[in-house]
Amino acid sequence: MSGPPRAHELGIIGCHVCGLVCREPAVEDAACPRCGAALHRRKHDSIRRTWALLLAAFMLYIPANVLPIMRTVSLGDVDDNTIISGVVELWVKGSPSLAVIVFTASIVVPMMKFLVLGTLLVSTQRRSGWALRQRAGLYRLVEFIGYWSMLDVFVVALLTALVRFGFFSQVEPLPGVVFFGLTVILTMFSSMSFDPRLMWDAPDHD
Amino acid sequence: MTEQSPREELPEPVVRTRRFSLSLIWLVPVLAAVVGLSLVVHAWLQAGPGITITFQTAEGLEAGKTPVRYKNVVIGKVDSLELSDDRQRVRVKVALNKSASSFATRGTRYWVVRPRIGLGGVSGVDTLLSGAFIGADVGDSEDEQYEFKGLEMPPAVLHGAPGKSFVLHTDDLGSLDTGSPVYYRRIQVGRVASYTLDRDGKGVSLRIFVDGPNDHFVTRSTRFWNASGVDVSLGANGLKLNTQSLATVIAGGVAFEEPHGPHDATPAPEDADFTLFKDQVTAMAPPDGPPRYIRMRFNQALRGLAVDAPVEFLGINVGSVVSINLDYEAKDERFPLTVGALIYPQRLGGAYDKLAAQAGTKDGRVDLARMFGPLVEHGLRAQARTGNLLTGQLYIALDFVPKAPKVAFDPNATPIELPTAPGSFDKLQEQLADIVTKLQKVPFDSIGQNLDATLGDLDRTLRHVNGDVLPELKGTLKGAQRTLGSADSALSSDSPLQQNLGSTLEELQRMARSLRALTDYLGVHPESLIRGRRGDRPPPSSPPARPGQGSKP
What we know:
By secondary structure, chain A is of the alpha+beta class. Chain A folds into two domains: 1-41, no CATH class; 45-205, Butyryl-CoA Dehydrogenase, subunit A, domain 3 (Up-down Bundle), CATH 1.20.140. Chain A has helices at 7-10, 46-66, 83-92, 96-125, 132-145, 151-162, 175-193, 197-205; strands at residues 12-14, 21-23, 30-31, 38-39, 70-74, 77-81, 169-173. In chain A, the strands form three sheets. Chain A has a three-stranded antiparallel beta sheet. In chain A, strands 1-2 form a two-stranded antiparallel ribbon. Classes of the chains: A alpha+beta, B alpha+beta.
């Protein structure tokens, strides 16, 4: 085994929060003596939590897409839109750029997160040493774009607050947006609970 | 720090007991699954029966958007639109809500509510902006049904609406239509719900609906009449124009009212039958009773007699003509006209009651033949009379004709046949004919011959006058003219007669003057008559007035 020794081999553990290095505890539950944060060699139960949250997010993503997210009432004409129908409507009514933005934020990004996190989880569980650097890059990407998919939720929230002209024009949020927001939050939690260091454990055991 | 092993130097972590089970994280996806499942279950529970409604057009309907409403509550939504197999109609698939599954029953009616501008007014204006929706009205039945034929027009009466429906019977629909208003004292209290031809095709039955609480104004004795349009009638009674209101002129309508006088005022029960009269006058008239058919044969032309012409008994309208047929009698080679009429004997009022009591009944009806028999004996005859001189309309008058020739009246004939008498106009014609025959008796020929001889004499006389008298007259006139010319010349200003006359007058003047001088001198010198005139005095001594002048002879 070449390369620098691992903390585990040296019997030490570092605090995630304040960076204090202390002896590795014999039991699982331990706290940093300086800042009180939980100490663990790797994020505790990371893979399982990530899986669970990811699965929950995926489950909620279905109603988020099926249920309408927004109701537009203009001159008595009631129009309920799901995410996809909203995108289609934007595209048809001559705002392709907006349609692309909404599509990216609401469809591409969540789907990408599901795929990337799923890939990372599977590969990590299989202790694959394949394309480690790229996988690390993907993880950073997922972390970065995570909150951008809240765009749709913000759009609905803003429109609901701003467009209140009674009979002439009114926008109301519908249950779909709640599911969509939950999906985004759960994927963010999911990517947070994933410990990228696990990826690097793989070659050690080979 | 020292050179000791780092491990010894490092602090010991605080050991804590585990606070929660790690597997609890799986609660999150489980929760998500539960939520998702509950949504599915909810949707499944919400999903009511799917029904199919067919319409003639899908105008205003949108798949996935158009709602189905009952009392303005959304009970379903249009799922998809498709053409029927024969491409004649549009099949609208509707997903009803679970709570509205009772709408998938027989008797439920569906129609599209869209803006409509009809003769009776404007409806569904709100759908101008919100888009059309499908209206529903549920019936009583519990039997399930999933295929419906949509109404093209909204129904006039919704199920369970307060009020009552009644059935009106009439001969023809007039200008009435579904939705035509029903008026009570010119206030709209209901509308025509539907109409159907009677099964035997001899009339029309209208179902009207009178909204509560006004439905109790419809009593057992209420009279209904058709208030449709402008009622213009030109008959023997003259020109007549009648309307209920401006709206009914366009859209038609039915009106009802209580008859005058005492009547049964108990509210009519649901679906009670009434007669729809043609107009208010007919409706408010006392009941006519059953009509009776009579026949009359006229031996003269009946120009101006039309079907519906009134039949009057002593001036009272008792019925109308229903048929006029030309007949042929080979025996006399004549063309009598057979006129059929429906009469309502009850219109004779009290007279009818007494006559009917005398006549008795036959076949459950008043024996009309026995009722008319004595009347005919007393001279009752049917006459075609001119009702309107302007239009020449005729009417049938049943009147007692004095000195009418006796006729045989067959009381057993069906229908009974009333004897006829020539009408007043026919009498006039007869009188004219009399005059013509009298005129024909005048000896126009001999009058003409005498006149001719007289005229010949006159001619001769005139010829004599022309030949002899006139030339002589001419000569006489000429002589007269000459005489007048000489007279004229004698009297002209330059004639010698005139001049002689002038000089004679001058002489006469002069003589008068000298006579005056002589009388003056004699007045002064009367002696001179005897002594003669003396010589003149010397002039200067006394100035006598013009002595010289007087001395002159």
